[in-house]
Structure formats: structure tokens, C-alpha cells
Amino acid sequence: MSTEKNKLTTSWGAPVGDNQNSMTAGSRGPTLIQDVHLLEKLAHFNRERVPERVVHAKGAGAHGYFQVTHDVTPYTKASFLSEVGKRTPMFIRFSTVAGELGSADTVRDPRGFAVKFYTEEGNYDLVGNNTPVFFIRDAIKFPDFIHTQKRHPQTHLKNPNAVWDFWSLSPESLHQVTILMSDRGIPATLRHMHGFGSHTFKWVNAEGQSVWVKYHFKTEQGVQNLAPDVAAQIAGDNPDYHTEDLFNAIANGDFPAWKLYVQIMPTEDADTYRFDPFDVTKVWSQKDYPLIEVGRMVLDRNPDNYFAEVEQATFSPGSFVPGVEASPDKMLQGRLFAYSDAHRYRVGANHSQLPINRPTSEVLNHQRDGQMRADGNGGASMYYEPNSYGGPTESTDHKPAPFQVSGQADSVGYDHHDHYTQAGDLYRLLSEEERARLVDTIVGAMKPVEKDEIKLRQIGHFYKADPEYGQRVAEGLGLSVTQQ
Q1: Region Disordered: start and end of each range (predicted)?
Q2: Which of 258, 304, 295 is nearest to 61 (CA)?
Q3: From CA 242, how far away is CA 310, in angstroms rounded?
Q4: pLDDT tens digits for 257-272?
Q5: Strand blocks (E) in 244-338
Q6: Cα–Cα distance between 394 and 399 in angstroms, integer?
Q7: Peptide bond into 266 cis (omega under 30)
Q8: Which backbone phi and psi does 187 adopt, to 5 degrees?
């Protein structure tokens, strides 16, 4: 219980009642826009760095195409997936998460995997990572999480105390921490890693029937990773190693490719599945929901100008097209607001008019003015709706598919709190050599942490995932699990 002197408040001085859970319609959501603390927290966070991206600052990009190889029309009416053989131009931006614009490519960090499809029904952005899960599952915790990955406000140095303190107090992060500290934490190149939508999304077919969907991009180059010592050497010798490798591969005609697969879950299964299917810290078992092939993505053209294309590219997981919609995933719900808001701040209100972001389909709306308006600003056409003079109006056949919500509006977490089963399953899937490297990496990362309290709390999470996992980390740190 906070005392009067240390109550967390909003910027206008009101006390915050819950800083761990966003306000949702029932325990499953969706998130309510009336949660002004969430909106203020995300909006302020988006404006903390000028002018580079607050996250995913260091990146590389390329143009290419996506071609449908299998019929998925029973599941979605999305036009770019409407027939086998259809090609859609696309642009992808790969990135690290925590580092600044000049940071090294080969650090241990998740990689952003953001794809923009230029479809005839508008741009569709699939903004994911090279991991199928994430550290947190509620957007209200995102600014705090990223603060721990950035620099200490006094020393301006990375702060392992903050990193492990937050993770140890957020057990839902254990699955992603295990992936990050494993061999896959440092990809050999951007071409040799998978990509994932990570979140659960909703697909809707032409008959209005819905399913839940997860995206998996499988690299055709095979997964390859870097040993930590090699990665450290490359970081010193060539901090732009991944950027250079991608550019040179495409320039030499060695076009990287990925096959896109999806997992499909019937909507009714969401109420009975053993993990909450909207919790982004969890995966769906491929035994329960097998991978279904959709198509193939090929990167075959480098940018002509890095700033105009890679740096000014803006992606939002809320850039949907008919046939693709949001799920109640609480992390996704926050990102639907935060990403576009970050672009309005970083690039400007008219960022979608830049060539790299401009849709190939016609844009008709009543948005006007704003800095750097690059088109005719609507000319003399109608600038409001509804009106009596004509112009673009809504088309009700493109309304999102309805879904039921239930429960009280409250700041609550997910009903499921098993943060250990999937992390433990992953640990047991690793070979002995992979487990040894995982433990060594974790021990090396935790040694600088000053408080044994933090180390022991985190060891407890490893132990709950698998007793051997916790015991080996404890031994590496010279601590005993029984000290908890």
C-alpha cells in the first residue's frame, strides 16, 4: 500500500489505482479507451526520444513481393490472399529493439520483423518479431519494460539491475527470456531467422465467419545463429554487419525468402484452450493447431535511399484490410494506438503520404491540413461527413465482424497465470549443449546484478519452469535455491 508521499500519480497529479493492468471489458477485453492513464502513459512514452524511434531505432529494409501458394479463402476474404498465384508488392523492415540508431547489429536482442503489404484494399502492416512470444502481455507495462532496456538516467549506461529486477517481478516474461538467452538470441544474419506476427489476430471470410489466427514466417535459408564471442567481435569490427549482409545478398541476386504459415483456431476454442489464446507470452501447440501454408515472401530489391524508405517507413499493427481484424490481445490492443501515435509524433500527421507509406489504392477521407501535407489537401471537395453534397461515405459491408464481450469494466489481468509450463517445455526441448549455453548466458547476464534478492527471485522462476534450470543458474551464480 502506497503512502501519501510515494503514491504513483498521473501527470495531472491524480493517484493511479492500477499500473499493472489496463482497463478492459471483462477479463479478456478488449481494452477500453476510457483508460486515460494507459493512453497518457503510452502517448508520453512515444515522445520520449527525438528524433529516432523510441524502440527499433536500428534497422534495415528491403522491397519484395508476397505470392499466395495455397488457398485460404475459407478463412479470410483479404483480397491479397484471394487466389493462388497472386502477387502483392511489400516492404520489410528488420530491427533490433533496445539499441540506438548507431548501435551494433549483433547484440542479444529480439529482432523486429515488420512487413507492409501494398494491397488493392489499402496497406496491411504485420508488425511482429523474430520470436513467437513477448516479455509482457499488457501494453500498460510496455513503457516501464523498455525503460529497463534503455540507459540509466544518471550513468547513461545499460543497467542489468533494472533488467533483471523487472523480469523477476514480471514472471510472464520467463518464456521470452528463455528464448532471448538461448542460441536464437543472436541471429547470424537477418536472412537466417524466422518471423512471427506474435499476436493472435482475427480472420473473417466472405460469409462473415471468423477464426483466430497466428502468423509464422519460416526462413528458407535455414536458422543460423552467432556464438556470443563471435557476435561481440563482429560488433566491434563491423557494427552494421546485418545491414550490410542483407544489402549485399540482394545486390548479388541471392534473394532471401520466407514461407508464410498460419495456425487457425476456431473462435469457440478460445474459451476452452488450456492457455489463453490471446496471451502474447504463450504459444499455441502446433499439435493442436498445425501450420497451414499460405504463401511465399521474397526480397528482391534494395532501397534507393535509406532515409526516404527505411527510416521514414511507418508501420502499425492497426493497419488492417478487410478480412483481417484485431483480437482482444491486451498487448495488441495497446499497440493499435501506440504505433500510429508514435508515427504522428516522429514523422508527422501526414506520414502515410510519403512514398514508402503511400497506399497503392486511392485514399478518400476527410482528414485535412497538418504539417508537411504533400498532396492537394482534398482540394475543394467536401471536408466533413455526413453531408448533403456528396463525397466518400462509409460502406457498411466493411464493418468489423462483431464479437461478444462480457464481465465488468475493470483493471484486471488474464485469468491464466501459468508462466512456467511453456518455458519449462522449451528448456527440456534443448539439447544438453544448448542448455549449457543458455545457462552460461543467463549467468553472465545476471552476475552484474547487485542485489541477491533480485537474483534469487529470478532463479525461483527458472526453478518453477524446471528444477534443473533453476539449480544450474543458481550454481553458476554461487547461490542456493534453498536460500529463497
Answers
A1: 1-29, 353-384
A2: 304
A3: 14
A4: 999 999 999 999 999 9
A5: 257-266, 292-301, 324-326
A6: 9
A7: no
A8: -65, 145
Which grid coordinates belong to 219? 526462413
Backbone angles phi, psi at 282, to 5 degrees: -125, 155
Q: pLDDT tens digits for 30-56?
A: 999 888 889 888 887 887 765 789 899
Amino acid letter, 238: N
Residue pair 435/462 in contact by the 8 Å Cβ criterion: no
Q: Which residue has the cell 501506440?
A: 338
CATH code 2.40.180.10 for 29-152+186-359: yes
Residue 378's region, left for phi above 0, alpha for psi from -120 to 50, else beta, is: left
- CB contact at 8 A, 41 and 143: yes
**Could you confirm whether 129 is annotated as catalytic?**
yes
CA distances from 245 to 238, 241, 251, 252, 255 (A): 11, 6, 10, 10, 12
Question: What is the grid cell recorded at 306?
Answer: 535509406
190 Cβ neighbours under 8 A, 6+ residues apart: 60, 94, 111, 242, 245, 246, 256
Q: Give the pLDDT confidence score for residue 49 in this predicted structure.
A: 66
The answer to pTM > 0.90 is yes
Q: Which of 37, 56, 63, 216 is catalytic?
A: 56
Question: Which among 432, 429, 438 is positioned nearest to 462, based on CA atoms?
Answer: 438
Surface-to-core class of residue 129, CB atoms within 10 Å of its CB (0-12 exposed, 13-18 middle, 19+ buried): buried
Q: Is 37 a catalytic residue?
A: no
Q: Which one of 21, 46, 123, 129 is the catalytic residue? A: 129
Q: Kindly give the parts of the chain with pLDDT less than 70.
A: 1-5, 49-50, 482-484
The reported pLDDT for the residue numbered 229 is 97
Q: What is the DSSP string of 422-459?
A: HHHHHHHHS-HHHHHHHHHHHHHHHTT---HHHHHHHH
From the annotation, which residues make up the binding site for heme? 339
User: Would you state the pLDDT for residue 3?
Assistant: 54
Name the binding residues. Answer: 339
Q: What CA–CA distance (Å, rounded) separates 201 from 286?
A: 17
CA gap 251, 366 in Å, rounded: 41
Instruction: Indicate the residue type of 218.
Output: K
